[in-house]
Design a protein that fits this description.
The protein is an alpha/beta fold. The chain is about 30% helix and about 25% strand. It binds S-adenosyl-L-homocysteine. The site of S-adenosyl-L-homocysteine has 24 residues, from strand 2, helix 4 and strand 4.
Length: about 220
């Protein structure tokens, strides 16, 4: 089967599984997922599954990317923070849907690869930082939208603080990375009030506080 027909089939599968927002489906269609994965997995680029990337991390399953992006309710005026750049795929999807994406990754070599991909695809509205995304990006706050792609045990208070007071939305997996209890949560902020709702179960790598030591790969 050709890449193009695999991609069309994936888009149909995502729609059947609840990704109905046509802007989100169009963004998934326009970003070449094969650019973000390792050579060894190239033939699985349009399979609906997570795949390993460097540093023991994963590029998320397309369905999870679709559902989380849809839950974020983006528009092209939004300034978005992503925590956990990984391969850069989710950031590229957000770059198609919003005005500017700020993305933070704790592994320097993953970020270097992601930056190359953004350059190749001419995604000029993504700004990157190597650091601890648990703390957000205070210098650029507030953000209209925040998407976290690694699981925290609790909703990180510093991220809530950096979310816009006027209808800010944050989508993130919460739960223990060691068990199967993670859930995607959506936090909405209005004024100083915020509400949260549970959306669907997921399995993400953990959100790790601090940056890697020299020995950590
Ligand atoms: N959004 C990614 C999926 C990344 S997996 C993609 O589309 O490919 C989660 C990523 O979060 C990993 O790369 C991991 O290194 C990173 N991460 C975990 N804890 C972090 C933290 N505190 N700050 C920044 N990045 C973190």
């Amino acid at each position: 089967m050709s890449t193009e027909s695999r991609k069309i089939r994936l888009i149909m599968d995502l729609r059947n599984a609840g990704v109905t927002d046509t802007r989100v489906l169009a963004a998934i269609e326009r970003v070449p997922r094969e650019t973000f994965i390792e050579e060894a997995f190239i033939d699985q680029a349009y399979a609906n599954q997570a795949l390993p990337i460097h540093c023991g991390q994963t590029i998320s399953q397309p369905l999870v990317v679709g559902l989380m992006t849809q839950a974020l309710e983006t528009n092209d005026r939004h300034k978005v923070l992503e925590v956990g750049t990984g391969s850069g795929y989710q950031a590229a999807i957000l770059a198609k849907l919003t005005r500017r994406v700020y993305t933070v990754e704790r592994h320097r070599d993953l970020m270097a690869q992601a930056e190359e991909r953004f350059k190749t695809l001419k995604l000029h509205n993504i700004t990157t930082m190597v650091g601890d995304g648990y703390k957000g990006w205070p210098a650029q706050a507030p953000f209209e939208r925040i998407l976290v792609t690694a699981a925290a045990r609790i909703v990180p208070p510093e991220l809530v603080a950096q979310l816009s007071d006027e209808g800010g939305i944050m989508v993130l997996p919460v739960g223990d990375a060691a068990d199967l209890q993670q859930e995607v949560i959506r936090v909405r902020k209005d004024g100083k009030q915020f509400t949260s709702e549970r959306l669907f179960p997921v399995r993400f790598v953990p959100l790790v506080q601090g940056v890697p030591s020299e020995r950590e790969t």
